[in-house]
Structures are given as structure tokens and as C-alpha cells.
Amino acid sequence: MHVFSDYSGKTHILTKGDARLKLLVAVSLLVMVLSHRGFVFALVVTGASLLLCVKMRAPVKVFVLRFSEPAFIALVLCLIKFLFFGRDALFTAHLLGFTISGYRDGLADGLLAAARIIGAVSVITVLGFATPFTELMSGLSWFRVPKGLIEVLMFAYRYIFMLLEDAMVIYYAQKNRLGYSNFRRGLTSFGILAGSLTLKAFEHSQNATVAMVQRGYDGHMPAMQHRPFKVSEVIATVFLIVVMGCIWEM
């Protein structure tokens, strides 16, 4: 369950900053990372993000888990580009009647795409570590993000912990009864687990709907009060965006 929790360091300067300004910096960096034509900017952003995560003392296990899936996607994309796209052949091999070729330009395109993926994920990771979820939703509401989307995100964040707790209870009950003693029984137990979680999700949604209607919920969820911007934070935000913009132009 701790994988989905907030790990914002309470004493770090990034955590104390305004969520709206952090969102502005994150979106600006995402646009720069995805639009830059080389590797340098994405590598700079990734390195800076890793240093910030270390300074915030982010748990290594959580950090690795959050990066594992994007890293796997980047690796697969790089291999596909290297083996199936390109014109400048780097090598050609014959294996079991198949001809396998690796392309130099395909490898370059794959590495560029992989760098963009890792750079973008690193920005989002730092934003997640440095900003509590409620403040993040409050910042999105200030930017006029549709209220329906914010409400769905808040409900999903609220109930993902309940479903995860239910899943762990069912899993340990199955495991204690040797439900995962072999591959076949493991698949059967996993199917039962998935079905039970689906039923519990519907049950939680119905209970939440009834409870909120009884308390006068009309589809409007009041957002948090926004404190005034600090001049120092605004100046630091503008300075950071300008500096990263200059690096992007190089």
C-alpha cells in the first residue's frame, strides 16, 4: 500500500512551494522534453530529477517501482526501433531461417524516444514526491481543469487504498490455504481475487453514492482555498523556466 502513498518531505523546499507553480514548471519541462530533438536536454532533466529525489529522501523501493514500467516500455520501444525501422544496417544475422538486422538510425530514434520517456517520467515523479495529492488537485482546479475529472481523480485516490487493502486480505487468505502452491491453482486464485475486487468496487461505489446523496452532494466539490502567490516563489519559477529554456535552445 505504501507504494501509492505521498512521500513528500515536509522539510524540503519543494514541498513548501505553491502547487500551482510546481504544476507550471512540470508542464513546461514536459513540453521541452517532448519537443527537444536531441538527448542532452532529456538527460539533464533526468539527472536533475534524480538529484532532487535523493535530496527529498524518496524511498528507493518506491522510486524503483515507479520507474520500472516506463523503463521497460522505453527498452521495448528502443529494441523495436533498432530491429525493424531504419535504412543504415549496423549488422545482419541469420537465425533459424530468419534474417535479423539492426539499424543505426533506428537505434538513434529508439534512444531518443527512450530518453524522452524517462525524462518525462522523472519530471512527474519529482512532482509526485514533492506535492501532496490534495494540493495537486487544488492546483489543477485553479488552472480550470474540468471539475468532473478532478472529482473522479479524488474518488479514485480515496478508494484505491480500500481496494488494495481488500486485495491484500483476500490474497493472504488464499496464500494461507495454499491457493498459490502451483501454477494452475495460482491462476484460479488470481481469477477469484480479480472477481472479488470487481464486486467490492461496485459495492463501494454504491455505498459512497448513497452516503453522499444523503449528505446533500449535488455534484459540486468545493476546492481548497488558494493562498496568495509569494513574490520569491514566482521569481524562482520564472528563473527556472528561463534557465531550462536556454538549455533547451542549445
Structure description:
This protein has 250 residues and is mostly helical. The chain has two domains: 1-131 and 227-250, no CATH class; 146-219. Helices cover 72% and strands 5% of the residues. The chain contains nine helices and two strands; from the N terminus they run H-H-H-H-E-E-H-H-H-H-H. It has helices at residues 13-16, 19-35, 40-55, 60-84, 104-130, 133-142, 147-176, 183-214, 231-249, and strands spanning 89-95, 98-103. A two-stranded antiparallel sheet has the order 1-2. A hairpin with a 2-residue loop joins strand 1 (89-95) and strand 2 (98-103). Helix 2 (19-35) crosses helix 6. The longest helix has 32 residues, at 183-214. The radius of gyration is 23 Å and the shape is flat. It starts with 12 loop residues before the first helix and ends with a helix.
- Distance linking N and C termini: 42 Å
Helix/strand-derived category reads: mainly alpha
Quickly count the helices.
Answer: 9
Backbone shape: flat
User: Mind telling me the C-alpha Rg?
Assistant: 23 Å
| Poorly predicted regions | 1-5
How many separate domains?
A: 2
How much helical structure, as a percent, in the residues?
Answer: over 70%
Order of SSEs: HHHHEEHHHHH
Q: Bin the strand percentage.
A: 5-15%
- Average pLDDT confidence is 84
Main β-sheet, spatial strand arrangement: 1-2
Largest sheet: 2 strands, antiparallel
DSSP summary, beta strand count: 2
Summarize the structure.
This protein is mainly alpha-helical. It is 72% helix and 5% strand. The model is unreliable at 1-5 (pLDDT under 50).
